[in-house]
Amino acid sequence: MLVTRIGSGALLLTAALGLSACGGGGEQPQSAKKPAQTAASAADADAFVAGINDDYREKLPYFSAAQWAQATYITDDTQLLASRANEEWLEYLSRKVQESKQFNEVDASDDTERAILLLKLSTANPAPSDPAKRAELAKILSKMEANYGSGKWCKAEGECLSLPEIEKIVNDPTATPEARAEAWLGWHETAKPIREDYVRFAELGNEGAKELGFANLGEMWRAGYDMSPAEFDAEVERLWQQVSPLYDALHCHVRGKLNAEYGDEVVPKDGLIPAHLLGNMWAQQWSNIYPLVEPYPGVGSLDVTAALKARRDGEYKRLLSEFKGKPTPLDLAELEHQADAAMAVQMTKIAEDFYTSLGMPALPESFYDKSLLVKPRDRDVVCHASAWDMDMQGDVRIKQCIEPDEEQLSTIHHELGHIYYYLMYNGLPPVFQGAAHDGFHEAIGDVVTLSLTPEHLAKIGLVPQQEIDDKAVINSQMKWALDKITFLPWGKLVDQWRWKVFAGDIKPTDYNAGWWDLRAQYQGVSPPVARSEADFDPGAKYHIPGNTPYTRYFLSFVLQFQMQKALCDAAGYEGPLHACDIYGNEEAGKRFMDMLAQGASRPWQETLEKLTGTREMDGSALIEYFEPLLAYLEEQNEGLSCGWEATKR
Fold it and tell me: pTM for the complete prediction?
């Protein structure tokens, strides 16, 4: 997940840009006392943008530091500091957005007009111009994020578990359905305290968006794609219709396997799948249940997690052997932590090696000095993985509680995609230091993960050399599909819920029902236990309390395959798309870096064309990638009742 350097967004204030006359002492002529109002010029607009760029360089390191402190050291004090910094940043952006309105009718250069537009859209949650409401918004945002980061499920016997510990239960396909349902419920209970906060946040965000000229906050979010909000709605729906048959086929197959495992009472043959049985707290990616649905057991087995855990355990044994004297329980805990930290660095360097093999620079030393790569033993942190550009000049960091498993290794490759995007566009003026659109930022690292083929994993020593045959290909594709294909409806529905909330189509009295209606419609899943409007299940996903727009992820899951195909073509690769590995190919790397260096300076259509030769996002490469699996699923699903009724829970 990307945490942008621009904290929580802009507020619109009523202050206007003041014009003043300057001169020597003594009485001034009447005309100097009351200067005539002159229209803003193109030169004024250029100077305004130059001032914004200077301000970003000066102010953003401070605001970023406050947010970083809160995310990596959750206390009342850091919440206060982050809230105050947020409020200051919101005030600054609001004032500048207000000032920028004087250039609405100015015939400025393309770059200046684009910079002013990006300024207006630089926030995910604009607030009203009223200073008290601005302070209220900043406080709510800090409270919601802190609630997520410090959330714990405390069992009846007194043991309290944090999210990573709870996820281990939900993610475990060998745990009983009852144990997973209990853990699922334990985490979702932590979101209840922010339900009313979210109601107020939506009110304030809508009020701020309206002051910027948008109907509501959702419409404002959809305006940042070099097309109208209505055109963007249609574009997202077009892409979903293009790729949804893949999800439908996979859902049918997985439901049949789960029904065979648990019986009709737990998983209906033709209804919704209980969300807690899919190996993920949010049922957004299902790779953890791969052992239950593996097409050809044992064929081409790739136990990357076991290899990583063995390396970590080896590091622990080394540290223990070097310890002088008899270690106390506290000493042993510290040695365990040191082994975890060393493994986290090693996994990060594996990911870094992929990027440098393409010709990209090594990460700055400060990256390893300042990043948080493992969960501290002494404090609460927001473990949700995120990449940070602290100063727009090379101070880049990751915040991730890395554990030695395959999913975390993939996540590091993803997060470094953000980091290298930052580094590639750091040479641009600050206002253009962003993605072509937010889906690009999420796609970059995932493009790299598509090259983590069995051959690549063997090449870097994580698995033995594989004999690849048709059965091994299907197994590998099933594993990827449980990560990539299953995400598509989830990636679309999270913002569908928020857009409906912001538009008033889902009222506060129906927040939870509206959430589960959409999950049934798009994902075909149901909650494991009865839910009511006393619950706030959307808030159990970071991006809701953290107010991070989510459609970017859906777009990225389409774009990553489109980009991968273009990079494989640039590398001169000939063969099935699913087997392409661009590791070490500097021609592909050059094409990649040329695109990344564009940042947000040009419309995304131009940036996409620079790499792929087309100006349109397209799901056909994703479909091509999974062609072997789709043929397998069609064969396996013969005779099954596929599809579901959204109301059949």
Answer: 0.85
